[in-house]
């Protein structure tokens, strides 16, 4: 059975996200293995635009995703999918790594 997608993906945004992901990973490797990464030109270049690029792409897709549903349902869905797992993982890591101490 062939499943067709009614919406076509914009390959340009997929490429931008892929490049940004690779730069984030490379930036973290650079931080780990080069103690002087903040003064290197490649480190400055990567950190100058990789997060703004993610925010720009996310902002572009945010409004259409909100328009699909009402704001209450959207916030509830985001809370369950993003905040709740982060909170649970944070508490789990406090007990796992911090020995039960939150601060």
Concise synopsis of the structure shown:
With 103 residues, this protein is mainly α.
Q: Topology, please?
A:
Blueprint: H1 11-33, H2 41-67, H3 71-97
Helix pairs in contact: 1-2
List keywords for this structure.
flat; mainly alpha
Order of helices and strands: HHH
Shape: flat
Query: What is the helix tally?
Result: 3
Secondary structure: helix percent: over 70%
Low-confidence stretches: none
Strand content: under 5%
Task: Compute the number of strand runs.
Answer: 0
Overall pLDDT level: 81
- Major β-sheet, in short? none
Task: Report the radius of gyration as a whole number of Å.
Answer: 19 Å
Distance between the termini: 54 Å
Tally of domains: 2
Briefly note the structural class of the backbone.
Answer: mainly alpha
